[in-house]
Amino acid sequence: MFDLLIRNANLPDGREGVDIAVKDGRIAAIERAIEGQAGEIIEAGGRLVSPPFVDPHFHMDATLSLGLPRMNVSGTLLEGIDLWGELRPTLTREAVVERALKYCDLAVSQGLLAIRSHVDVSDPGLVTVEALLEVREKVAPTIDLQLVAFPQDGYYRCPAAVDALNRALDMGVDVVGGIPHFERTMEDGRRSVEALCRIAAERGLMVDMHCDESDDPMSRHVETLAAETLRHGLQGRVSGSHLTSMHSMDNYYVSKLIPLMTEARLNAIPNPLINIVIQGRHDTYPKRRGMTRVRELMDAGINVAFGHDCVMDPWYSMGSGDMLEVAHMAVHVAQMTSIADRKRIFDAITVNSARALGLEGYGLEVGCNADMVLLQARDPLEALRLKATRLAVIRRGRIIARTQPRIAELDIEGRPQTVDPADYAPIAAS
């Protein structure tokens, strides 16, 4: 007797027509024609079952605050930072919690069941930290929420940040953050990377830094981040987020930098939606895209994971919590349209992001947590193309969200009565 049985599912690794049996919150079997009864049965009908989506880079303390205290008229990063500086002193714990929980509802409906959120620690009152620690506890049954102590105004640039960051970590924040390119000088940026990596090593924590979110090819703090990762033995536990300056760096320097990042086993976390609208603002034409060198990093064996970054906040007025939208944009901006490339892009919002967060029990294998998403598409490529509807979202073997299939009804003489976008898949090669 199983708790849940999913019949006739396709999996991202190419397995087709398999059943997935769930018992006690874990995957008990994956094979064809599983015999046995179940408390609930889902007929997948040859649709894709994926592990849940994972967002390795988000700002939950600011989400859904669009319009407070005013709109970002220019749409630029710097005005967004100024806006957040105006909003932050007015924040209450209750308001931050309410907006964050509302976003988490949206995330669950989108099959997004793990999020790493940066939490601003520039205000010594740490209202945002208190709020998101409360949210982390409340959403634990449905979402794995990691928190990053993030000195938004600069670790050295903001006089209160050094003490506030340490207090945030003492309160239970999971990851050490930083923003070296926002310090007043390149030297202060380098010093901040060294200090923050030392703190992480001493506390046994992971590191995730906003790094080189700039069009300036001389913003090279990722080099220091990789070197400090090696110095402190933090390999595999450090992420460089954004890394947009790599888009503008000369190829010779990058030929040295990427092997260093590979040696440090750095995770690279681009944010396609935000990077391409924030960067290149000083360019006329030709205009730079701004997103980092995704293909080259992947080819080097670096773990590349895509983040959403923002949803309706001072920096980004759009967004819907949809990691397939993030990946869909990445396919276009990175010009990764081959079959193999699109599979790698899908991995960047699932297994790669889970690896960056160090999630345990993630995946579609026997013994893994029974966390899954049933999509209205037959495979990862079609899921990306369609930004497919999440028909069922499963957490520890329990269905926590359902959405009706996207089916249009037609009234055209001589044509079908309904249209299912998932039926418009490519003709399989014979």
From TrEMBL:
One of its GO terms (biological process) is cytosine catabolic process. Keywords: Hydrolase, Metal-binding. InterPro entries: Amidohydro_3, Metal-dep_hydrolase_composite, Metal_Hydrolase, Metallo-hydrolase_Enzymes. Residues 40-400 form the Amidohydrolase domain. GO terms for molecular function: cytosine deaminase activity; isoguanine deaminase activity; metal ion binding. Pfam families: Amidohydro_3. It comes from the Bacteria. This is Cytosine deaminase.
